[in-house]
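Sanity check

After download, print the first record. It should look like this:
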Amino acid sequence: MALRLAWENGHLEAERTWRCLRRLPVNHTPRRDFLDRTQCRRLLDACSPALRRLVMAALYTGCRVGELGQLRVEDVAYQIYGLRIPAFKRSPARFVFLPDEGMAFFQRCCLGKAPRDHVLLSEAGKVWRRQHAGPFRLAAARAGLPSTFVFHGLRHTYASDLICHGVPLEVVARQLGHADTRTVASTYGHLAERYREEMIRSRFSALVSDPAGPALIH
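Expected structure tokens:
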């Protein structure tokens, strides 16, 4: 990125210098920084009204702060039962489907607003950008969450909850705005494997009346 900016600003004679660079591979480690529903409720109780709405929006969608900050009334329930998320950074525009309670929440946030109004605003009536960080850190501390937990952890919470309830990785990836399942599989795949183990152990129909008895085949 630095070399590209240097070329764009006239500090390099040719773009070949940065065009020849290759992107380094990124290894996504399994995520552990996500909340259960009890922790989510404690966090919501510790938030101011505006921050609470922002946190709830993240928990219902898995969206980033920047994506939620751009969200306008006209993006809610646009052609689908969910949200139209505008393009953000390198992520293209996408649709995010909502559960019933999530749709009801966003519709309440839109009451009395014009189509081009922002859905979520700070306590000062400003578009959310980075001013959430300090208040969120304080709310997380009041809720007794780990000091390392940041707002982006709500995105991991959203994805982890879906995967633990059996939602396919492809669906989760589409909701988060990933082009394929690779990032989701490497980040949350351990949760999917745990769910698969639980499903097989709990739903396999028995072949013998006494599973602890002699083996079926000798």
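If your output differs, re-run the checksum step. Summary of this record's structure: The longest strand covers residues 82-85.
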